Every structure is written in C-alpha cells, then in structure tokens.
What does this fold into?
Amino acid sequence: MEKTWRWFGKKDKITLPMLRQIGVEGIVTALHDIPNGEIWSSEAILDLKQYIEAAGLHWSVVESLPVSEAIKYAGKERERLIENYKISLANLGKAGIKTVCYNFMPVIDWARTDLNHPLEDGSSSLFFDKIRFAYFDCCILKREGAENDYTDDEMRRVRQLDQVITEKEKDILIDTIIVKTQGFVNGNIKEGDQNPVAIFKRLLALYKGIDKEMLLSNMQYFLEQIMPVCEEYGVNMCVHPDDPPWPLFGLPRIVTGKEDIRRILQAVDNPHNGLTFCAGSLSAGVHNNVLQLAEEFASRTRFVHLRSTHVFDNGDFIEASHLGGRGHLIELVRIFEKKNPGLPMRVDHGRLMLDDKDKDYNPGYSFLGRMFALAQMDGVIATVKDELQRNRI
It folds into this structure.
C-alpha cells in the first residue's frame, strides 16, 4: 500500500518536509481555496502539483473535488455545476492526477459530538454521543418531526439532558456538529459565520421532499454524466461511505453498507466508478461486517482510509486504536494486499496527543496522533508484505 497523508495545502501548519521525514509517500489534498462548484484550472492544479513534487512527494489522491449541493438535490444549477465538474476532472487527468475521493452526503459531512473526548492515557479522541446529537437535533435545531427519529427512551434522556446542559455546552455542541467539522471539509458553514444554526436550517430545507431513492437517482445521473470524462483521462472516482452510516437530520444517506455500495457500483457499472473504503465510517455501523465488505468490494476499491471505531451498546461510538476496534485493520490490510495490492491508503482521525493539544489543527487531523497511527500501519503493512512474500517462496 502507498502511504499517503491528507494535507490541507500551502497554509497547513503540517508542512511537506515534515511529512517527508515520517515516511509519507503520497499527498492527499485539494484546491481548498476554490469555492465549491467553480472550475479547478489547469494552472492552479499544476502549481500545487509542482509545489508538492518540489518537496520530493507526489499528489496521489484528490480529496476532495466537492460535489455541490445543487447536484445532490437536482437544483436548477445542476447542469452548469456538472459541466464545471467535468472540466475540473479533465484538468486533473491531464495533469496526471487520477484518483478523486468524493462523497454524496447531503449538507453535512462526518458528524461527531465531542472533538476532545478524554482517554485514560491522557490523549483524546473524536466521539459520537447519540443523546447529545439528538438534543442538538430536537432542542437546538428544533427540526420539525425530529422526535420521531428517536426512541421513547432516547427522548426521555434528551429531556433529562435539557435540565442540566449549560449554555456554554450548547454553544460547543453547535460549533462541533455544524462548524468545526464542516468548514474545512465542504465549506457549507465555516468559522466566523453568524448564526450557523439558521444557515444549517436553510441548507436542510433544500432537501425537502428528497428521499433515498431520489438521492440515489441524482447520484446515478451525476456519475453517468462524468464517466465519459473519467474514461477519456483515466480518472477514478471513489465514493466515500457515509459517516456515520445512517440517516441524520431527516436527510437520506445512500452509502451506508453492503446493499448501498453494491447498488451504486452496479447502477453505473464502470471501473472508473469506484469506492473509497473507509473502515472507520463503515465500522461505526453495527450492521456492517468490515472484512466481508472488503472481500466483496476490493476490486472496485481505489483508495483506503485506515481507521477504526469502537461502538458501545447504546450506539455511541469512539475512534478506536488503529490496532483495535471493529475496523480489524490488520486483517483488512491482508485482504487488500492480496486482492488489490498497491492501493493508496491514509490513516485517518488520529488521536490528539502530547503537544498537538496546543496546536490549531483541523479536528481529527493532528500531526503526532496521525504519525503514531501511520507508524502502526507501516508496521502492519510491512508484516503483511513479508508474509505474502514468504508464502510465494
């Protein structure tokens, strides 16, 4: 597997020389300064590509070329936005950048309720608390009909939380769910926006009447439109699973597990329509057997995110050690090295540890925490390669 690292461009405090020193081979990045829906010019792509290469690395994967909301809900700007997307894909392909990780999650990308959940060893990790999420949905967002998405027991606990939660905790919850984890990912809401809850409500309203079948249809249409460009320039699209893999805020989620992935790959049965296998996202759903999914979809996987989760009995989950949890990353590496060797992989959502706590890194994207995880996975990959080599002799 190729060891890659998600890097947030020239402004990232984690520099390319730092990454070179810790054994990173490929860079996963995007043109983060270009607003969603606008064209990535050849000039801008080549400038960043040459900057990366000057540091002795190469641009391995685009994560991501964002799919604008109007494409997802089939708004009036859809055709123009798809044309822009096709031009950007062509420009990437002509520059020799052939792998594009993207998602089709409406409005909100990955969701957590705590960005600094303390662990026993003094480090911290990302955490999803089902009741605090429900509280945000029902009592802060006050989404119409939200209560129907939760059990009676969950709503009882939401009401109990409402009696003790502080205004500061409410502000932190807003910042965590719809600002800090979204601004650097898809730009729908960003740091400094006034009244983010109101902005979020307006975004949700765009999907009124959009159910799972309609969203799937819109995704199929998008893929059918861009596949000719992908074929011409050899670009692989690889969809990222939903995180967490179930509906949020009444929005449909369409990449949640085996049946969804199978349906998407069959609907546009083209080798350039592939999968980003994110073990962390998939393992957060107890309905998913990560190893079985890897066995089935290895041939259509174009990029791998190596992280893992631990799911509690009540449905809460936490980012687990890269050597533990439901992701089973050691065996996962064995599967991919046997069935589709050489895939780019990146470790994901490293814990916050040591003096990373004092640095303003994007949530889940600390330096030392990811470096620790990369070292663990580097050892796993080396061990698996040695096993396979000895078995051939």
About this structure: The chain is about 45% helix and 15% strand. The chain has a mean pLDDT of 94. Residues 70 and 76 are 7 Å apart (CA to CA).
